[in-house]
Amino acid sequence: MTETTIQDFNAKDSLIEWFDHHRRPLPWRKDSNPYAIWLSEIILQQTRVDQGLPYWERFMATFPTVESLANAPSDQVMALWAGLGYYSRARNLHRTAQLIQERGSFPSQSSELVKLPGIGPYTAAAIASICFKELSPALDGNALRVYSRYFAIADRIDRSSTLATIRAQAIPVLDAHRPGDSNQAIMDLGARICTPTQPKCPECPLHRQCEAFRRGTMESFPVKPSKKAPNVEDWHFHIYVDQGKFGLEKRVDQGIWGGLWSFPVAIAPEAATATALRCTHLLSHKKLTLFFHEKDVVKVPMTPAVQWFSLEEVKNLGLPVPIRWWFEEKNYF
Ligand code: SF4
After folding, report:
1. 41 is catalytic
2. What confidence tens digit (pLDDT) does each residue in 186-205 have?
3. What is the pLDDT of residues 115-136, one digit of tens each?
4. Catalytic residue, candidates 41, 270, 294, 329
5. Which CATH number is correct for 231-329, 1.50.10.10, 3.40.50.2300, 3.90.79.10, 3.30.110.70?
Protein backbone atom coordinates (compact mmCIF):
# COMPACT_ATOMS: atom_id res chain seq x y z
CA MET A 1 0.00 0.00 0.00
CA THR A 2 1.50 3.39 -0.99
CA GLU A 3 1.54 6.41 1.33
CA THR A 4 -1.08 8.16 -0.81
CA THR A 5 -3.41 5.19 -0.57
CA ILE A 6 -3.06 5.04 3.20
CA GLN A 7 -3.83 8.77 3.38
CA ASP A 8 -6.87 8.41 1.14
CA PHE A 9 -8.04 5.40 3.10
CA ASN A 10 -7.82 7.36 6.38
CA ALA A 11 -9.47 10.42 4.88
CA LYS A 12 -12.30 8.34 3.43
CA ASP A 13 -13.10 6.74 6.77
CA SER A 14 -12.72 9.97 8.75
CA LEU A 15 -15.05 11.72 6.33
CA ILE A 16 -17.83 9.12 6.60
CA GLU A 17 -17.51 8.92 10.38
CA TRP A 18 -17.71 12.71 10.64
CA PHE A 19 -20.76 12.76 8.34
CA ASP A 20 -22.56 10.17 10.48
CA HIS A 21 -22.20 12.45 13.51
CA HIS A 22 -22.45 15.91 12.01
CA ARG A 23 -24.61 15.76 8.88
CA ARG A 24 -26.98 18.67 8.39
CA PRO A 25 -30.57 17.51 8.93
CA LEU A 26 -31.85 18.61 5.53
CA PRO A 27 -35.32 17.40 4.53
CA TRP A 28 -34.27 16.05 1.11
CA ARG A 29 -31.79 13.75 2.88
CA LYS A 30 -34.58 11.74 4.52
CA ASP A 31 -34.54 9.27 1.64
CA SER A 32 -32.83 8.98 -1.72
CA ASN A 33 -35.70 10.31 -3.82
CA PRO A 34 -33.95 11.57 -6.99
CA TYR A 35 -36.70 14.14 -7.66
CA ALA A 36 -36.28 15.71 -4.21
CA ILE A 37 -32.48 15.64 -4.46
CA TRP A 38 -32.49 17.10 -7.98
CA LEU A 39 -34.87 19.90 -6.94
CA SER A 40 -32.70 20.75 -3.93
CA GLU A 41 -29.54 20.82 -6.04
CA ILE A 42 -31.08 23.14 -8.65
CA ILE A 43 -32.51 25.49 -6.02
CA LEU A 44 -29.26 25.60 -4.05
CA GLN A 45 -27.10 26.56 -7.03
CA GLN A 46 -25.97 30.11 -6.10
CA THR A 47 -28.36 30.13 -3.11
CA ARG A 48 -27.67 29.51 0.59
CA VAL A 49 -29.50 26.63 2.29
CA ASP A 50 -31.47 28.92 4.63
CA GLN A 51 -32.69 30.95 1.64
CA GLY A 52 -33.37 27.97 -0.61
CA LEU A 53 -35.10 25.71 1.93
CA PRO A 54 -38.51 27.53 1.88
CA TYR A 55 -38.47 27.37 -1.94
CA TRP A 56 -37.77 23.64 -1.88
CA GLU A 57 -40.61 23.13 0.63
CA ARG A 58 -43.04 25.15 -1.52
CA PHE A 59 -42.06 23.27 -4.68
CA MET A 60 -42.43 19.87 -2.97
CA ALA A 61 -45.80 20.88 -1.50
CA THR A 62 -47.09 22.19 -4.84
CA PHE A 63 -45.44 19.59 -7.10
CA PRO A 64 -44.78 16.46 -5.02
CA THR A 65 -43.68 14.39 -8.03
CA VAL A 66 -41.73 14.95 -11.20
CA GLU A 67 -44.97 14.34 -13.15
CA SER A 68 -46.86 17.06 -11.28
CA LEU A 69 -44.04 19.51 -12.07
CA ALA A 70 -43.96 18.40 -15.71
CA ASN A 71 -47.71 19.00 -16.09
CA ALA A 72 -47.78 22.42 -14.38
CA PRO A 73 -48.32 25.65 -16.37
CA SER A 74 -45.00 27.47 -16.86
CA ASP A 75 -46.33 30.67 -15.23
CA GLN A 76 -47.01 28.71 -12.03
CA VAL A 77 -43.46 27.33 -12.03
CA MET A 78 -41.99 30.79 -12.65
CA ALA A 79 -44.15 32.35 -9.91
CA LEU A 80 -42.92 29.77 -7.37
CA TRP A 81 -39.34 30.37 -8.46
CA ALA A 82 -39.53 34.20 -8.37
CA GLY A 83 -36.95 35.67 -6.02
CA LEU A 84 -34.31 33.00 -6.55
CA GLY A 85 -32.85 34.67 -9.65
CA TYR A 86 -31.20 32.87 -12.57
CA TYR A 87 -34.61 32.25 -14.13
CA SER A 88 -33.28 30.02 -16.89
CA ARG A 89 -32.84 27.45 -14.12
CA ALA A 90 -36.61 27.41 -13.52
CA ARG A 91 -37.31 26.98 -17.24
CA ASN A 92 -34.76 24.16 -17.43
CA LEU A 93 -36.26 22.55 -14.34
CA HIS A 94 -39.67 22.51 -15.97
CA ARG A 95 -38.35 21.24 -19.31
CA THR A 96 -36.30 18.50 -17.64
CA ALA A 97 -39.32 17.32 -15.65
CA GLN A 98 -41.18 16.98 -18.96
CA LEU A 99 -38.30 15.03 -20.53
CA ILE A 100 -38.11 12.68 -17.54
CA GLN A 101 -41.86 12.15 -17.72
CA GLU A 102 -41.60 11.32 -21.45
CA ARG A 103 -38.71 8.96 -20.70
CA GLY A 104 -40.71 7.18 -17.99
CA SER A 105 -38.04 7.07 -15.26
CA PHE A 106 -35.34 9.15 -13.62
CA PRO A 107 -31.93 8.53 -15.27
CA SER A 108 -29.56 6.79 -12.84
CA GLN A 109 -26.14 7.50 -14.38
CA SER A 110 -24.36 10.84 -14.42
CA SER A 111 -23.57 10.37 -18.13
CA GLU A 112 -27.32 10.32 -18.86
CA LEU A 113 -28.30 12.99 -16.32
CA VAL A 114 -25.82 15.48 -17.74
CA LYS A 115 -27.68 15.45 -21.08
CA LEU A 116 -30.78 17.00 -19.48
CA PRO A 117 -31.32 20.79 -19.52
CA GLY A 118 -29.92 22.52 -16.45
CA ILE A 119 -28.06 19.48 -15.13
CA GLY A 120 -24.32 20.02 -15.21
CA PRO A 121 -21.56 17.61 -14.16
CA TYR A 122 -21.83 18.59 -10.48
CA THR A 123 -25.60 18.04 -10.22
CA ALA A 124 -25.38 14.83 -12.27
CA ALA A 125 -22.69 13.44 -9.96
CA ALA A 126 -24.61 14.51 -6.85
CA ILE A 127 -27.83 12.78 -7.97
CA ALA A 128 -26.09 9.66 -9.32
CA SER A 129 -23.95 9.20 -6.20
CA ILE A 130 -26.64 10.00 -3.60
CA CYS A 131 -29.53 8.15 -5.23
CA PHE A 132 -27.82 5.43 -7.27
CA LYS A 133 -24.41 4.94 -5.53
CA GLU A 134 -22.30 5.99 -8.53
CA LEU A 135 -18.67 6.63 -7.56
CA SER A 136 -18.45 10.22 -8.90
CA PRO A 137 -17.08 13.25 -7.06
CA ALA A 138 -19.64 16.08 -7.04
CA LEU A 139 -17.58 19.21 -7.62
CA ASP A 140 -19.30 22.50 -6.91
CA GLY A 141 -17.58 25.63 -5.59
CA ASN A 142 -17.57 24.35 -1.99
CA ALA A 143 -16.20 20.94 -2.92
CA LEU A 144 -13.54 22.47 -5.17
CA ARG A 145 -12.40 24.67 -2.29
CA VAL A 146 -12.12 21.66 0.04
CA TYR A 147 -10.27 19.49 -2.49
CA SER A 148 -8.00 22.27 -3.73
CA ARG A 149 -6.87 22.80 -0.13
CA TYR A 150 -6.71 19.12 0.72
CA PHE A 151 -4.45 18.42 -2.27
CA ALA A 152 -2.87 21.94 -2.31
CA ILE A 153 -3.72 22.36 -6.00
CA ALA A 154 -1.59 25.24 -7.28
CA ASP A 155 -3.29 25.57 -10.70
CA ARG A 156 -6.09 28.02 -11.39
CA ILE A 157 -9.40 26.55 -10.30
CA ASP A 158 -11.33 27.85 -13.35
CA ARG A 159 -9.32 25.67 -15.78
CA SER A 160 -10.84 22.47 -17.08
CA SER A 161 -7.49 20.69 -16.65
CA THR A 162 -7.55 21.55 -12.92
CA LEU A 163 -11.08 20.21 -12.66
CA ALA A 164 -10.00 16.95 -14.33
CA THR A 165 -7.06 16.62 -11.92
CA ILE A 166 -9.27 17.17 -8.88
CA ARG A 167 -11.91 14.76 -10.20
CA ALA A 168 -9.30 11.99 -10.60
CA GLN A 169 -7.66 12.66 -7.22
CA ALA A 170 -10.99 12.88 -5.38
CA ILE A 171 -12.29 9.43 -6.37
CA PRO A 172 -10.15 7.53 -3.79
CA VAL A 173 -11.46 9.87 -1.07
CA LEU A 174 -15.03 8.65 -1.71
CA ASP A 175 -16.37 5.57 0.06
CA ALA A 176 -17.22 3.05 -2.68
CA HIS A 177 -20.23 1.80 -0.67
CA ARG A 178 -21.49 5.26 0.29
CA PRO A 179 -20.28 7.67 -2.40
CA GLY A 180 -23.31 9.92 -1.93
CA ASP A 181 -22.58 10.30 1.77
CA SER A 182 -18.92 11.07 1.00
CA ASN A 183 -20.02 13.77 -1.45
CA GLN A 184 -22.50 15.20 1.01
CA ALA A 185 -19.82 15.20 3.71
CA ILE A 186 -17.59 17.27 1.43
CA MET A 187 -20.53 19.62 0.70
CA ASP A 188 -21.14 20.05 4.45
CA LEU A 189 -17.44 20.58 5.14
CA GLY A 190 -17.31 23.29 2.48
CA ALA A 191 -20.39 25.00 3.88
CA ARG A 192 -19.51 24.85 7.58
CA ILE A 193 -15.85 24.04 8.23
CA CYS A 194 -13.69 24.67 5.17
CA THR A 195 -15.13 28.16 4.68
CA PRO A 196 -13.63 30.70 2.24
CA THR A 197 -11.96 32.59 5.08
CA GLN A 198 -10.85 31.33 8.48
CA PRO A 199 -11.52 27.62 7.93
CA LYS A 200 -12.02 25.74 11.20
CA CYS A 201 -9.31 23.16 10.51
CA PRO A 202 -9.05 21.64 14.01
CA GLU A 203 -12.72 20.56 13.62
CA CYS A 204 -12.15 19.12 10.15
CA PRO A 205 -12.00 15.33 9.75
CA LEU A 206 -9.44 15.77 6.95
CA HIS A 207 -6.94 17.92 8.81
CA ARG A 208 -4.45 15.11 9.41
CA GLN A 209 -4.11 14.53 5.67
CA CYS A 210 -4.76 18.08 4.38
CA GLU A 211 -1.75 19.48 2.56
CA ALA A 212 -2.77 23.14 2.84
CA PHE A 213 -3.27 22.74 6.60
CA ARG A 214 0.12 21.08 6.91
CA ARG A 215 1.70 24.05 5.16
CA GLY A 216 -0.48 26.64 6.94
CA THR A 217 -1.59 28.06 3.58
CA MET A 218 -5.30 27.21 3.64
CA GLU A 219 -6.51 30.57 2.36
CA SER A 220 -4.11 30.48 -0.61
CA PHE A 221 -6.44 27.88 -2.17
CA PRO A 222 -8.31 27.66 -4.44
CA VAL A 223 -6.19 29.71 -6.83
CA LYS A 224 -8.60 32.09 -8.58
CA PRO A 225 -8.30 34.37 -11.63
CA SER A 226 -8.27 38.11 -10.84
CA LYS A 227 -11.73 39.66 -10.63
CA LYS A 228 -13.21 41.94 -13.28
CA ALA A 229 -15.23 45.00 -12.17
CA PRO A 230 -18.97 44.46 -12.89
CA ASN A 231 -20.67 46.41 -15.69
CA VAL A 232 -22.72 49.31 -14.37
CA GLU A 233 -26.08 50.10 -16.03
CA ASP A 234 -29.08 52.36 -15.36
CA TRP A 235 -32.47 50.79 -16.06
CA HIS A 236 -35.65 52.89 -16.23
CA PHE A 237 -38.94 51.12 -15.58
CA HIS A 238 -42.09 52.74 -16.96
CA ILE A 239 -45.08 52.18 -14.73
CA TYR A 240 -48.54 52.48 -16.26
CA VAL A 241 -51.66 52.04 -14.14
CA ASP A 242 -55.08 52.21 -15.83
CA GLN A 243 -58.31 51.72 -13.88
CA GLY A 244 -56.53 49.69 -11.23
CA LYS A 245 -54.69 47.52 -13.74
CA PHE A 246 -50.92 47.44 -14.17
CA GLY A 247 -49.19 47.29 -17.57
CA LEU A 248 -46.56 44.53 -17.48
CA GLU A 249 -44.67 42.66 -20.14
CA LYS A 250 -43.11 39.23 -20.07
CA ARG A 251 -39.35 39.33 -20.43
CA VAL A 252 -37.84 37.24 -23.17
CA ASP A 253 -36.58 33.84 -22.04
CA GLN A 254 -32.94 34.67 -22.73
CA GLY A 255 -31.31 37.28 -20.52
CA ILE A 256 -31.97 38.85 -17.13
CA TRP A 257 -35.23 37.79 -15.46
CA GLY A 258 -36.21 35.78 -18.55
CA GLY A 259 -39.81 34.53 -18.40
CA LEU A 260 -40.79 36.85 -15.51
CA TRP A 261 -43.21 39.81 -15.68
CA SER A 262 -41.75 43.29 -15.47
CA PHE A 263 -42.75 46.90 -16.13
CA PRO A 264 -41.58 47.94 -19.61
CA VAL A 265 -37.96 49.01 -19.28
CA ALA A 266 -35.58 51.33 -21.13
CA ILE A 267 -31.87 50.84 -20.68
CA ALA A 268 -30.97 53.96 -22.71
CA PRO A 269 -30.01 57.04 -20.63
CA GLU A 270 -33.00 58.94 -19.30
CA ALA A 271 -33.32 61.83 -16.87
CA ALA A 272 -33.95 60.55 -13.35
CA THR A 273 -36.81 62.59 -11.95
CA ALA A 274 -36.77 63.55 -8.29
CA THR A 275 -39.94 61.53 -7.74
CA ALA A 276 -38.67 58.30 -9.29
CA LEU A 277 -38.10 55.58 -6.72
CA ARG A 278 -34.75 53.94 -7.19
CA CYS A 279 -32.76 51.01 -5.91
CA THR A 280 -29.60 49.16 -6.80
CA HIS A 281 -29.56 45.52 -7.76
CA LEU A 282 -26.47 43.34 -8.03
CA LEU A 283 -26.31 40.50 -10.53
CA SER A 284 -23.33 38.21 -10.95
CA HIS A 285 -21.94 40.27 -13.84
CA LYS A 286 -23.74 43.64 -13.59
CA LYS A 287 -24.55 46.36 -11.10
CA LEU A 288 -27.93 47.89 -11.98
CA THR A 289 -29.37 51.16 -10.74
CA LEU A 290 -33.11 50.87 -11.24
CA PHE A 291 -35.41 53.88 -11.60
CA PHE A 292 -39.19 53.52 -11.38
CA HIS A 293 -41.05 56.21 -13.35
CA GLU A 294 -44.80 56.49 -12.90
CA LYS A 295 -45.99 57.43 -16.38
CA ASP A 296 -49.06 59.07 -17.82
CA VAL A 297 -51.24 56.19 -18.96
CA VAL A 298 -52.45 58.16 -22.01
CA LYS A 299 -48.93 57.92 -23.38
CA VAL A 300 -48.59 54.18 -22.94
CA PRO A 301 -46.73 52.80 -25.96
CA MET A 302 -48.96 50.64 -28.17
CA THR A 303 -46.82 47.58 -27.84
CA PRO A 304 -48.47 44.18 -27.96
CA ALA A 305 -46.01 43.00 -25.31
CA VAL A 306 -47.79 45.01 -22.60
CA GLN A 307 -50.63 43.15 -20.88
CA TRP A 308 -52.89 44.47 -18.13
CA PHE A 309 -53.31 42.79 -14.75
CA SER A 310 -55.33 43.54 -11.63
CA LEU A 311 -53.40 43.71 -8.37
CA GLU A 312 -54.65 40.24 -7.37
CA GLU A 313 -53.42 38.84 -10.69
CA VAL A 314 -50.05 40.59 -10.30
CA LYS A 315 -49.57 38.89 -6.91
CA ASN A 316 -49.67 35.49 -8.60
CA LEU A 317 -47.23 36.34 -11.40
CA GLY A 318 -43.53 35.53 -11.39
CA LEU A 319 -41.97 38.94 -10.67
CA PRO A 320 -38.28 39.90 -10.45
CA VAL A 321 -37.25 40.89 -6.91
CA PRO A 322 -36.98 44.65 -7.70
CA ILE A 323 -40.48 44.73 -9.24
CA ARG A 324 -41.89 43.03 -6.14
CA TRP A 325 -39.89 45.54 -4.08
CA TRP A 326 -41.65 48.44 -5.90
CA PHE A 327 -45.11 47.01 -5.14
CA GLU A 328 -44.11 46.65 -1.48
CA GLU A 329 -42.62 50.15 -1.30
CA LYS A 330 -45.90 51.50 -2.67
CA ASN A 331 -47.91 49.44 -0.16
CA TYR A 332 -49.69 47.43 -2.85
CA PHE A 333 -48.47 44.11 -1.34
S1 SF4 B 1 -8.01 20.93 7.16
FE2 SF4 B 1 -8.71 22.99 6.90
S3 SF4 B 1 -8.13 23.59 4.84
FE4 SF4 B 1 -7.95 21.36 4.97
S5 SF4 B 1 -9.89 20.60 4.18
FE6 SF4 B 1 -10.10 20.75 6.41
S7 SF4 B 1 -10.93 22.79 6.82
FE8 SF4 B 1 -10.20 22.74 4.70
Report:
1. yes
2. 999 999 999 999 999 999 99
3. 999 999 999 999 999 999 999 9
4. 41
5. 3.90.79.10
